[in-house]
Design a protein that fits this description.
Layout lengths: L10 H18 L25 H22 L4 H24 L6 H20 L7 H26 L10 H18 L2 H21 L13 E2 L6 E2 L3 H9 L21 H18 L5 H22 L12 H24 L7 H8 L1 H18 L1 E3 L5 E3 H9 L6 H25 L7
Helix pairs in contact: 1-2, 1-11, 1-12, 1-13, 1-15, 2-6, 2-9, 3-6, 4-5, 6-9, 7-9, 9-11, 10-11, 12-15
Length: about 450
């Protein structure tokens, strides 16, 4: 494709990213996990809900952003070594932050939690001051650097000694973002558009064949349904993704998975997730061509509808399933992402309706940072910050606030939703302050 010499910033992409991050925070932080409206829950197994849009939408956005970020760097004659170093740094940082968030509730010593939190706060302060022109800037930078170094050393030493390694969840949302970003970015730097499309389809075909044809001991090949074990009366699976996770990640899976031993961000299901990022890369190539804006939008809608229809057709043989990141789910959600981006592109970049979506543009300006920090604070409210309850026993600060200021005034479902909305609002105020000060935390 003949691409533009200068990349035009997609305000619609920032808004799309902000809507997705706000959705992530909303669905991940209900007041009570017992009372959640069905659209705000993931589908338990086959099928989908609006909540199942969020993660593939974000990976799709990562793919679009890869092209815009690296195209500009390549035009400035950045060396291949510098590009690969950037990929490595971002991948490691995302993966480590994801592991820290996974491990937070199992950190035994209070000092360990404090050091880890100081490290993250110091990193935030570093970003706050590194572009300012204050007289004390150098001193502040030195202080934050030493805080980060000291906390990192204490954190590492304490982790090796006290962390519950047997139950640390290794996969996770940020970990999957890190891996898929790294692989897709390397493919982008080393191939042309045609080969990127081949890779996107190839990953789906490989995953399909593995899941359908490789036999699982005791179950055979192609078992995709969630089943009830006749002995334990507990849900179990017979698919290859579950088998691989239960063997290679034994004890390191998500405790809330649909069946023991499985992980929705597991090893095999990461393969089709790479295709989701590559769909975003292919979309960015289309948006960077010299075609008219209206032609670009028409293309987004045409390919989006094609993806939705094709995903539904593929689901006849391999059901749409977020937990397995099935090929039908990948294609279906890729189509929906194209349609959603098309609507945003039409309204924001072409028609200029930016005021109504300004809050989401602000959210999107510090997307990964606000996701990581909101996840950290959510864990602190549950596992670290305690108050004395009515019975004189320690209780989580979140439980105290929720029971005192939300439960008495609303129905259980509305109280749970109200807490989630207030939590989103709190983080909007945080990113609004950063946005006003032109502070953009790069993760």
């Amino acid at each position: 494709m003949d691409e533009l010499k200068k990349s035009k910033r997609l305000i619609s992409l920032d808004a799309f990213r902000g809507i997705t991050i706000a959705g992530m925070i909303l669905v991940n932080n209900p007041g009570s996990w017992e009372f959640i409206y069905p659209p705000l829950r993931h589908a338990r197994w086959h099928g989908w809900t609006p909540t199942d849009f969020i993660f593939p939408f974000f990976l799709f956005i990562v793919g679009v952003a890869i092209v815009y970020a690296f195209a500009n760097r390549m035009k400035s004659n950045a060396s291949p070594a510098a590009l690969y170093l950037k990929i490595l740094k971002r991948t490691v940082l995302l993966f480590v932050i994801g592991l820290y968030l996974s491990a937070f509730k199992t950190f035994p010593p209070l000092a360990l939690k404090i050091c880890g939190s100081i490290f993250i706060i110091a990193a935030l302060l570093y970003n706050l001051f590194k572009h300012t022109h204050l007289e004390l800037r150098e001193k502040l930078l030195n202080v934050t650097k030493w805080l980060m170094i000291g906390s990192a050393l204490i954190l590492a030493a304490s982790t090796l000694k006290g962390l519950d390694w047997q139950h640390l969840r290794i996969p996770g949302v940020l970990q999957r973002i890190a891996i898929t970003y790294a692989i897709a970015a390397i493919i982008y730097l080393n191939t042309n558009v045609r080969w990127q499309a081949y890779f996107a389809v190839g990953f789906l075909v490989i995953y399909w064949l593995l899941m359908k044809l490789v036999p699982v001991p005791g179950y055979g090949a192609g078992m995709l349904d969630l089943i009830i074990d006749p002995v334990t009366n507990q849900p179990t699976m017979g698919n290859l993704a579950w088998y691989v996770d239960s063997r290679l990640l034994a004890g390191h899976n998500w405790s809330g998975a649909p069946a023991p031993g499985f992980d929705p961000e597991g090893i095999l299901s990461t393969i089709p997730a790479i295709s989701t990022v590559l769909f975003g890369i292919l979309t960015a190539h289309w948006l960077r061509t010299q075609r008219d804006d209206h032609e670009k939008v028409n293309g987004l809608f045409v390919f989006g509808i094609f993806g939705v229809v094709l995903g539904e057709i593929l689901s006849i043989w391999f059901p749409i399933n977020k937990n397995l990141w099935s090929p039908s789910y990948t294609v279906f959600m890729g189509g929906l992402a194209l349609l959603f981006l098309g609507v945003c592109y039409w309204l924001i970049d072409i028609k200029g309706y930016q005021r109504a979506v300004k809050p989401f543009i602000i959210f999107g300006s510090n997307a990964l940072a606000v996701y990581a920090l909101s996840s950290l604070v959510a864990r602190m409210l549950v596992f670290w910050l305690k108050v004395t309850g009515p019975d004189g026993q320690p209780m989580a600060l979140k439980t105290f606030l929720y029971q005192k200021y939300f439960e008495p005034f609303l129905s259980p479902y509305n109280a749970s939703l109200a807490w989630a909305l207030c939590y989103v609002l709190v983080w909007y105020l945080f990113v609004w302050i950063l946005y006003k000060k032109r502070i953009f935390i790069k993760v």
